[in-house]
């Protein structure tokens, strides 16, 4: 077990949930992708009320089929190959969660993290632009990943946003994050979202605190319940 792996397990009290084979994971990722399309269709549809009611009945039947075999918790919070928590149903990055855009985070050679993503009309706040809370959610996840990439993961204690320009939906966006300072159990990181023109739309600064016990001192793991994983 790598050092980062061990710290992540203690910070987020990660335990393997019910194992999922690759075929099931791929099938559920495909299902989530179709549900994302369905969600976008619902937001944009202009069908008449009778058709909307008919589709609603079909969707209710589909939900009942899925609930016929139901997990008590979202699937799998485990350590991925990069030594960090891989949460298949994370609401930002989880391929198995239809709510997630999803935003795929990668590591940069400078020790930070980055992502390239597009948000659709499902995430609209002000007309034509992304909801500010959605930007905050993406940045919280990205900043958390930066703290983890630094080997100092933690729970988000503070998250400060500066909305410099509206963030448009339906166009390619990029976001980066990097740790600026780590002291004791606290880690500070900065992040930005940029539009297709490269201009910053949102800046963020966050402070993460490693829960007591995460250093393996025999204490509890703070408020992170067993089986919990990072939540944004
Ligand atoms: C690729 C995939 C990667 C995956 C990478 C993972 C990505 C994860 C991204 C999502 C992360 C989240 O959203 S996490 C979910 C949102 N966050 C939460 O729910 C956190 C809830 N809060 C907590 O659990 C707790 O309050 C903690 C752990 C943050 C702190 O509790 P604690 O450890 O008991 O803290 P405590 O001993 O009292 O204080 C320690 C020091 O920190 C200060 N302090 C404590 N709380 C705060 C605070 N909120 N804001 C400022 N300062 C604080 C105290 O004054 C003290 O300072 P001094 O006296 O020492 O100076």
TrEMBL record:
Enzyme class: hydrolase
Membrane topology value: Peripheral membrane protein
Xref: InterPro entries: HotDog_dom_sf (IPR029069), THEM4/THEM5_acyl-CoA_thioest (IPR052365), Thioestr_dom (IPR006683)
Major location (coarse): membrane
Subcellular location: Cell projection, Ruffle membrane; Cytoplasm; Membrane
Documented EC number(s): 3.1.2.2
Catalysis performed (reactions): hexadecanoyl-CoA + H2O = hexadecanoate + CoA + H(+); (9Z)-octadecenoyl-CoA + H2O = (9Z)-octadecenoate + CoA + H(+); (5Z,8Z,11Z,14Z)-eicosatetraenoyl-CoA + H2O = (5Z,8Z,11Z,14Z)-eicosatetraenoate + CoA + H(+); octanoyl-CoA + H2O = octanoate + CoA + H(+)
Keywords: Apoptosis, Cell membrane, Cell projection, Cytoplasm, Fatty acid metabolism, Hydrolase, Lipid metabolism, Membrane, Transit peptide
Annotated CDD domains: PaaI_thioesterase (cd03443)
UniProt cross-references to SUPFAM superfamilies, sorted A to Z: Thioesterase/thiol ester dehydrase-isomerase (SSF54637)
Pfam families: 4HBT (PF03061)
Domain Thioesterase intervals: 129-185
Family: Belongs to the THEM4/THEM5 thioesterase family.
PANTHER family (alphabetical): ACYL-COENZYME A THIOESTERASE THEM4
UniProt-recorded name of the protein: Acyl-coenzyme A thioesterase THEM4
Originating organism: Actinomadura parmotrematis
